[in-house]
Amino acid sequence: PREHDVPRTKAIVAAVEADLGIAVEVFDEPRRTRSRVAAWLLWVRSFVVRIPPWVYGDLDRNLMSRYEALAREVDAVVLLQDFTGIYPLLAAGSASAPVVADKHVVLARPRREGEGARLGARMVRRLTTSYEHRYLAKAERIVVTTDEDARWLIELYGRQPDAIIATGVPVGPARVGRLGERRRVGWLSALDVVDNLHGLDWFLRDGWP
Question: What region, left, alpha or beta, does residue 93 occupy, with left being phi > 0 and alpha being psi -120 to 50 degrees?
């Protein structure tokens, strides 16, 4: 979580831990400041690796190591934000649990009429499209939130979403099929988003017996 959200996040996580009797790791991420030169170098590196600077600049090496370890141990990895797509994309080694991309929005879809007419906007969109396309190629399942995003997912990447589920909808009793011997899931997300915590709470309580 971001520095200013840490107290609230830890309070919510503590409530989840107490309620469910589980342990949750929270990584404090101090707010980063960059000089103009550092910001310019970040853009240069971002174009080299074809990842938007607002994603590449938030890459945490400790979380990368954690992801690489978890991806070999768990039965599935759930990515709740597009920022986390960088971890399966850059992770070392090929051994990984199946990845599920739970997308809030298709990043590369135009937001308004005429967007992308300027050179800078076209370059940013090309960078975003490259990143999104490559990390979604790592995902075995993709969930989007709207029919519009489903259309853009098909148009931009030729991928049919596996489900369309609106954000914040009430959920009923879970219907869970047969489970294997292992029952572990890697849940990689920003826990300073309250909806993500509520979703994790529900999943642990009702969706993963």
Answer: left
